[in-house]
Specification:
Layout: H1 2-21, H2 26-42, H3 48-73, H4 88-92, H5 96-110
Helix pairs in contact: 1-2, 1-3
Length: about 120
Amino acid sequence: MAASAHVSSVRALYKRILVLHRFLPIDLRALGDQYVKDEFRRHKSAAAEEAKGFMTEWQNYKDTLQTQVLESAQGQKRSVKFGANLSDGALGSFQDDQIGQLYELMLESTKSSRQFDIQEDSK
């Protein structure tokens, strides 16, 4: 029964993050959606301890993004900046492959000609 509860909570978190991504600029949404899908797939068979840390970090991401989306919708910030800076302590706890992945994500999200050339539908 505990396994089904865990699967349910993982699915709920995954779906909530994808819903929140709908409020991101279209190119960041595409990048974020793909990253989330890849990460959740990659951790599908993670050990219990790793899964716990994974869920905690993605829950923190969801909470941060939800706060930023709500502030944006309420007009509390003139220029919306999504995301948050990582502390040196957080960076120090990453494995080498995670640092590389983070670096690639940073490069993709900040370059002027992004991989995803997506146009919003004009209504």
